[in-house]
Amino acid sequence: MRKSVPEYRHTLHAVFADERDVKEAARALRAEGYTILDAYTPYAVHGLDRILGQRPSRLPWVCLAFGLTGAAAKLWFQIWTSASDWPVNVGGKPLASVPAFVPVTFEITVLFAGLGTVAAFLLRAGLRPGKRVKPVHPRVTDDRFVLVLLQDNAAFRLQDVEAICGKHRVVEVEERLEEVS
């Protein structure tokens, strides 16, 4: 069996100290046509996803699907149990009394939606227990903001990018050769 040859890509990591600086630099770099692969921040920066041109997450739809699946499964199970598998006539009440099932169905809906969404997120993000992830910058989880740019063509000029980032108080710029996984 032949081993596959690893693919590499050239990236540029621009490190900033302030949220406003990273947003303005990202806006300026996108306006100049540079490709920003990702942004790493110590906390959620509102509006940065729109500046980077990322499309909205599909995770809410996954949450809805898991919630509806849980609700449908629980309603079916309760109706089947009370009306067909173990019918017990209590005071002339109907065997499949759906209003009595609402509280438990709601709880199961929330449980399925929550657990399913977490599982989908962990699977999609490739996270698992014990996985070692090397951060892009040692202080990105403390107080630094990092933009990762793709050096994807010959028109990419390091001096131009450094000039744009310099206008927005860049702290550090580093070129890297990364293996594409």
Q: Quote the beta fraction.
A: 15-25%
Radius of gyration: 25 Å
Sheet with most strands: 4 strands, antiparallel
- Name the overall outline: elongated
Order of helices and strands: EHEHHHEHE
Number of helices, counting only DSSP H or I runs of 4 residues or more: 5
- N- to C-terminal distance: 20 Å
Number of strands: 4
Question: Structural class of the helix and strand makeup?
Answer: alpha+beta
The strand order across the widest sheet is 2-3-1-4
Given as residue ranges, the uncertain stretches (5+ residues, pLDDT < 50) are: none
User: Which bin fits the share of residues in helices?
Assistant: 40-55%
If you average the pLDDT, what whole number results? 90
